[in-house]
Amino acid sequence: MKHKKRGFFRRIIGFTLLELMVSMVVLALLMLVVFNMLETTTKAWSQSTERVQTFKEARVAFEGLTRRIGQAMLNTYFDYKYRTPVPRPNERPTGYERKSDLHFISGRSEDVLESERFPTHCVFFQAPLSFSLDPSNQSFGSLLNSWGYYIERNTDEDQIPEFLTGFETITGKERYRLMEFRPPTENFKVYSSDLKTRYNTEWFKNDVVQKAYTPGGRPFSRAIAENIVALIIEPKESTSTTETDNSLAPDYEYDSRRFQKDKKPKDPTKHQLPPLIDVTMVAIDEGSAIRNEQREGQLTEIVPKNLFQKVTDYDKDLDELKRILESKNIKYRVFHETVAVRASKFSDSALQR
Q1: Is the backbone of residue 227 left (phi > 0), alpha (psi -120 to 50) or beta?
Q2: How far apart are CA 201 and CA 255, in angstroms?
């Protein structure tokens, strides 16, 4: 801006046209830079928020899963030990041994549940979770429940309201879902009069496969997250530092009553909870599930059955699963946590000898 003095007065001459044009160009460049920065920041924020919201259900389900697995218990006690499983009349005991009426079992779902409908792994146990549908039991704070987690390929037809079931355009959506098995305390079967249910999987297998309901019509199992394609359960000792050190469950299989099935009374897992459990869960987003279904023409199995059979191959199997998902342009997220089972007393396993 130019000024010109004449005596005691000053007259403002003003900006030249060239100065105005340069100022406008500089201002336009500054605005362009600011808008580009704002657009980039907004896009990154939207993508981050969308990603968080996409896997929010899976994250909440995973946190509940790991928290409840850590509450597993066997309520062990010491009783007389005999030479034979069924002592003869007047037979003298040879010592003491740890016993339990409860059960902890995990492994490949196809083996545990004896059905190909359930991919990857599953886990079932008892815990004081105090879940009851009877109002008179609400005051009890440590009621025992059977609990479990597994993946099932199913539809959500039972969640469609009755007044919409008549429309042909509204049908059940088939997806892989993380299921939570949680019969109420009133349907607790471990202490049933049929004693053999204590020694095998009858307390949960038939109810899971055949979809059992309470007398009031409430299902024992419910879906807690959609688009969960893999669940890997690895029980291990607290001294294990690598996958090669896992002698407790080298095939991912753990069963506190395996000694009865294999007829090995000195099995280290006999009435024992694993000290640590590595839990891995893989979730995909709904958009990827829709695209994959449209590309294949139907909902297909994403995780090959040959994966996650040996603990020593865990890293290789997980990398292979990631490669498969990325090759199909599927957005995914891997959840992983090592859970400490608080009721585990594996350090004094020598008392089992």
Answers
A1: left
A2: 10
Q: pLDDT tens digits, residue range 33-88?
A: 888 888 777 766 655 655 656 688 999 999 999 999 999 999 888 888 887 767 78
69, 30: one domain: no
- Span 329-351, average pLDDT: 82
Q: Give me the number of domains the chain comprises.
A: 2
Query: Which residue, of 54, 78, 97, is where some domain finishes?
Result: 54
Domain that holds residue 251: 59-352
Question: Which of 59-68, 173-182, 243-252, 334-343 comes out lowest in average pLDDT?
Answer: 243-252
Residues 242 and 337 in one domain: yes
E strands, the chain, where? 2-6, 9-14, 77-81, 95-99, 105-108, 121-127, 145-154, 175-181, 221-226, 228-236, 254-255, 276-284, 332-340
pLDDT in tens, 184-242: 999 998 887 665 655 678 899 999 999 999 888 889 999 999 999 999 999 998 876 65
Contacts 24+ apart (CB under 8 A), 341-344: 341/69, 341/70, 341/72, 341/273, 341/274, 341/275, 341/276, 341/277, 342/70, 342/71, 343/71, 343/72, 343/73, 343/74, 343/273, 344/272, 344/273, 344/274, 344/275
Same domain? 16 vs 159: no
Residues 309 and 213 occupy one common structural domain: yes
169 and 45 in a common domain: no
Do 65 and 153 fall into the same domain? Answer: yes
> Do 251 and 323 fall within a single domain?
yes
At residue 311, the pLDDT reads 94
Nearest of 282, 263, 265, 235 to residue 105 by alpha carbon: 235
Residues 50 and 73 in one domain: no
Helix (H) or strand (E) holding 57: helix 56-69
